[in-house]
Amino acid sequence: MQDIHDIVNTIKDALTGKKRQTIIVSTILIVMTICACIIALFQKIHQSKKETVPAEEKELIIDQPLLLPDSPTVPKGYIFSREKNGRWDTSDAQQWFTIPEKNVIDELSEANDRIDSDITGAAP
After folding, report:
1. Less packed terminus of the chain by CB within 10 Å, N or C?
2. How many other CB atoms are there within 10 angstroms of residue 2's CB atom?
3. pTM of the complete model beyond 0.90
4. Which residue ranges make up each domain of the chain?
């Protein structure tokens, strides 16, 4: 009987002070981990029971024009696509073409020269 009293006294000592807080926190963490595992197991079982049915393919029928919302990123009159003509006319050139400045062309030429020299290296 002496052994049982020693065990009971050891348990009483463990449930007092800082050891008590450690045991309570550890027990709570263990219970939460077990609950999370059980929930994950039930979700896995539920997903395996659910059969995935392929969605029907539906044909898209456009019966109204596409309306774009006003936003600062899409200016009014912006065209996402347009029919291509074989050539530009003067109105297209005025709207879309910007004549580059000399310094921009010089910078581009120097950058291309550096790329050429990097590629060719010391080749004759």
Report:
1. C
2. 5
3. no
4. 2-48, 92-119
For residues 124 and 119, what is the distance between their CA atoms, to the nearest angstrom? 12
Asked if residue 123 has pLDDT above 90, the reply is no
Alpha carbon distances (Å) from 58 to 27, 35, 52, 63, 107: 54, 43, 18, 15, 53
The residue ranges of DSSP E strands in 34-100, in sequence order, are none
Q: How far apart are CA 105 and CA 53, in angstroms?
A: 59
> In the structure encoding, which two tokens stand for residue 47, read together?
């997903």
Separation between Cα atoms, residue 60 and residue 24, nearest integer Å? 60
6-33 per-position pLDDT tens digit: 888 777 777 777 777 888 889 999 999 9
- Gap between the Cα atoms of 31 and 20, Å rounded: 16
